[in-house]
């Protein structure tokens, strides 16, 4: 009896692992549709960042899961703490220009997407000085109530 139970349990666990490894099947057409929804949203958020419009950026974020946000060496459990710091740090900035060198959208399921990108940002200060930063980004988007929203992000910069 114990042997039969052990064999059954092992078989059940193996089937579970196989199912986990195959993931969700999404057709190429579904992937393309999702990419065409998330891509323009990402680019509109980049334009809002160039304009230093943090309110518009925030409309694309849903922090109900408190998944966390990482910027350089700092972890923020809640989005509002991150955005308040970014607003304060941008006080001396006049504008910024963001150039995406490469981006990749990976559709993980019908409601989860990973977007990674890297590029350069040129920041012009009110004082007339400017500087450039190379950045690396990753964003996790989730479809919530019919809309795609960032639920987690990681951003690293190199000057």
- Overall 3D shape: elongated
The tally of domains stands at 1
Identify the CATH architecture: Roll
Low-confidence stretches: none
* Lateral strand order in the biggest sheet: 2-1-6-5-4-3
Q: Summarize the amount of helix as a percent range.
A: 25-40%
- CATH topology tier name: Nuclear Transport Factor 2, Chain: A
Largest β-sheet summary? 6 strands, mixed
In terms of structural class, how would the helical and strand content be classed?
alpha+beta
What's the overall average pLDDT, rounded?
90
> What radius of gyration results from the CA coordinates?
20 Å
Description:
- The protein has 159 residues and is α+β, with helices and mostly antiparallel strands.
- It has a single domain (28-158), classed as Nuclear Transport Factor 2, Chain: A (Roll).
- Helices cover 38% and strands 39% of the residues.
- It is built from four helices and six strands, in the order αααββαββββ.
- Strands 2-1-6-5-4-3 form a six-stranded mixed sheet, with helices on one face.
- The radius of gyration is 20 Å and the shape is elongated.
- 11% of the residues are buried.
- The model has no long low-confidence stretch (mean pLDDT 90).
